[in-house]
Amino acid sequence: MSADGMLLAQAPDGVPIITRGDDLAALLVPVLERLSWPDGSTGLAEGDVVVVASKIVAKAEGRLVAARDDAERESVIAGETVRVVAERERPDGTTLRIVENKLGLVMAAAGVDASDVPPGTALLLPEDPDASARRLRRGLLARTGVRPGVLITDTAGRPWRRGVVDMAIGAAGVQVVTDMRGSRDAYGRELQITVIAVADEIAAAAELVKGKVSGRPVAVVRGMGHVVTLEDGDGAASLIRPAVEDMFRHGVSQD
């Protein structure tokens, strides 16, 4: 939770259309400087977390590929797939595949996205989201003098739960988990297994103000300064559960 029990989140208007080769920090700083907070301050402050949709990061990094028909799109997905976890035939004859992609993320269609891109194309995830977050953090620091935490996020479904949520796939300067093990609850019992995915919770909170079709791919979350670190840290890759700990590594769909 927030250190003082309060979170503020804003998703500013005015983020331009991002294309290959764009300097994200240079484009985002003028937008972020227009933020206005209830205490009268503006722009970024130390302890803020800048939350960025992976889509604009991937566009800036030139991750757009050809996908002119279903067969070509399936080939793109196969190229990003390391392991098929589960699959199901849809009523229209296509197949939904839940797979592990090259980043180690388990996602539908390997995270390949055909929305909000030119016809006949698809967008891959950033090649190294943690490295992307570190670059963006350095760029923001150089231009503003502020060292915020940075999260790069994408949307995924969850086993046994309807709907999708945003999660952190890249992180820099954010303590991505809070390990509560060893602390005690209100009755004095020692917590044994509670490790909170703080980066994912911030990502999900930011998505409430960003939205999928609002044209606001960036949000700033204020109130989580206690998890913003001077060093970039281990990144969001450390959130991926190792295979040896994965109790649900393979799924079987039965209609």
Which terms would index this structure?
255 residues, alpha+beta, 60s Ribosomal Protein L30, Chain: A, CofE-like fold, 2 domains, five-stranded mixed beta sheet, three-stranded antiparallel beta sheet, 5 helices, 25% strand, magnesium, potassium
Question: How would you describe what is shown here?
Answer:
It is a single chain. By secondary structure, this protein is an alpha+beta fold. It folds into two domains: about 10-60 and about 125-240, 60s Ribosomal Protein L30, Chain: A (2-Layer Sandwich), CATH 3.30.1330.100; about 65-125, CofE-like domain (CofE-like fold). The protein is about 20% helix and about 25% strand. The chain contains five helices and twelve strands. It has helices spanning about 25-30, 55-60, 70-80, 130-145, 200-210; strands at about 10, 50-55, 65, 80-90, 95-100, 105-110, 120-125, 150-160, 160-170, 180, 195, 220. The chain has a five-stranded mixed sheet. Strands 4-5-6 form a three-stranded antiparallel sheet. A hairpin with a 2-residue loop joins β8 and β9 (about 160-170). α1 packs across α4.
